[in-house]
Amino acid sequence: MSSAATNSQQQSTPFPSATSETTSDRSASNTQHDPQLFQPHYFFFYGSLSDPSFLAKVLNRQDKPAVRPAMIMEHGMRMWGEFPALLDGCPEKPIHGVGYKVRSQVEEDRLAEYETDMYRKKGCVIEFRDGSKVPGVTFVWNADPGLLKEEGFDMKDWLLEQKDSRGEGEVGV
């Protein structure tokens, strides 16, 4: 989940089915969106974006976004360097993370830019801790699976690394 991208992507529907791939277009010509057509919808985050402080920075918000603990079942996870990556059609165990309701096309574009073309949007079913389920979108690996390793992602370790690299006190949820 790298932040060094300038591309954006677009989704054809705010609620894709869990098995259908969403349409993505990262061309610069499709960066203008009609805000009146945007419908808020849930995204599932499983890595660095599941930290509300980090998500606030990506979304360029002053406040921490409201996230809800959640999981998805449709994917497996591998690592791309220090970043987790979901794989299509490799369900091994639940992937734990958070659900967040994206409020605008600007927010969605910022998320896509953060993720780069190494990831693409895909529909999923998000299950919250209370058992409720909603259709949503997550980012899945969009490059050569051979670049991925079997190592696991640990949010607590990631938060500690971020704190140490910035020389800050407490970070995270």
TrEMBL record:
Coiled-coil annotated spans: none
GO terms for MF: transferase activity
Highest taxon of source: Eukaryota
Xref: CDD domains: GGCT_like
Keywords, comma-separated and alphabetical: Transferase
Gene3D superfamilies: Gamma-glutamyl cyclotransferase-like
SUPFAM superfamilies given in the database record: Gamma-glutamyl cyclotransferase-like
Compositionally biased tracts (Low complexity): 1-13
Pfam assignment, any one: GGACT
Domain Gamma-glutamylcyclotransferase AIG2-like: 43-158
Disordered: region residues: 1-32
InterPro entries: AIG2-like (IPR045038), AIG2-like_dom (IPR009288), GGCT-like (IPR013024), GGCT-like_sf (IPR036568)
Protein name, per record: Putative gamma-glutamylcyclotransferase
Native source species: Aspergillus kawachii (White koji mold)
